[in-house]
Amino acid sequence: xxxxxxxxxxxxxxxxxxxxxxxxxxxxxxxxxxxxxxxxxxxxxxxxxxxxxxxxxxxxxxxxxxxxxxxxxxxxxxxxxxxxxxxxxxxxxxxxxxxxxxxxxxxxxxxxxxxxxxxxxxxxxxxxxxxxxxxxxxxxxxxxxxxxxxxxxxxxxxxxxxxxxxxxxxxxxxxxxxxxxxxxxxxxxxxxxxxxxxxxxxxxxxxxxxxxxxxxxxxxxxxxxxxxxxxxxxxxxxxxxxxxxxxxxxxxxxxxxxxxxxxxxxxxxxxxxxxxxxxxxxxxxxxxxxxxxxxxxxxxxxxxxxxxxxxxxxxxxxxxxxxxxxxxxxxxxxxxxxxxxxxxxxxxxxxxxxxxxxxxxxxxxxxxxxxxxxxxxxxxxxxxxxxxxxxxxxxxxxxxxxxxxxxxxxxxxxxxxxxxxxxxxxxxxxxxxxxxxxxxxxxxxxxxxxxxxxxxxxxxxxxxxxxxxxxxxxxxxxxxxxxxxxxxxxxxxx
Length: 494
What we know:
The strands form two sheets. This protein has a six-stranded mixed beta sheet, sandwiched between helices. A two-stranded antiparallel ribbon has the order 1-2. It folds into three domains: 275 residues, P-loop containing nucleotide triphosphate hydrolases (Rossmann fold); 46 residues, no CATH class; 150 residues, no CATH class. By secondary structure, the chain is an alpha/beta fold. Helix content is 57%, strand content 10%. It is elongated, with a radius of gyration of 26 Å.
């Protein structure tokens, strides 16, 4: 089912995350993958699920460098990421239907499979609810439902019970066992819970410093009356229970401070920082915004002004939070392991923003006509096309930026990049009234060319150099944004 030989991964910064992993996973097994933080578990898992290309050893799936072979791999397997795999607010049924369509099912076939998948996971009757209204255990089972819709033969689970209470964990264990017992499904899971590996897995593998250092059935490893924690401590020099307790008290940084976890370096360090707060929606808010919101709440006796400021702050950053959650959460990872091309995924996210932009533009034009705007229809339609293409380009670029930088830097980076370009476009101050140096500088803003083209179109001047320049800049900016966005979506992220 899975077989790797000398599987290795060295990142561009020289970090050797995985160093010659040999493993075999047989059909129908439940295999647990254990290791200290920074040992290479996540990197190995991402290579097995085609999200990372190995730098050494043959790929775990044949020729996964091509789109066609990646699609075949995705059709045979499924991945349930560690972070939440569904949006918190829309009903889950629509998300499940789209998931099935990404795997080649028709909408009707996907809709027909949903009741059976949900019944297997004790989720019958909940498809029309929003995930935010469900318990943690049910949300985690819905994450697995996304992975089961296309009937895979191999299921990857990344820390499936993290954050669940003991009863929910035991319930999820039963469902995972039933997938193996009733359907013969092979399950490969990572976990930080030794009792989970002991109770659930047919075999466990322990990885440390990028190498498999022990493997076998739990009973085989627990010789001489030892527990799995004893085995783990003897092999790695670290107690997984101690790591879990330390991280639960203060996060990875506190664990490193106490010496329970060695500090990550290079790319692993950036990854740990980016993923540390995935499960906590409040932590996705930039720290500066949270500080201001706390300040406003502490001014509760200062009257309604503080409340209005807090609400305005939350509204102003709501879209930023939503984009960051989608970009960094399990939603995007769930989409990236499907057979769909990365360009199609990016266009799907962009079109979601374009729909909103279209509605806003139509409303703005309707109001303008009500207040006496008179412009030729051809000019209005041409302007509409330019605005939509420009908005789609900005959406693609903003997604790329959100995936590239730390979340707390996203608002200031976007503001610093966009506001000067808008000001230099002449939308607020005609460049003819600006100093000569500022007028010359404004030519670097693509928005200036687009705005001048819009003015000509609204005046009925279609075949002018200004319109041609605006159209050319808009198309070039769209190609640039989609190229950058697709590369970032396709980029290896460990």
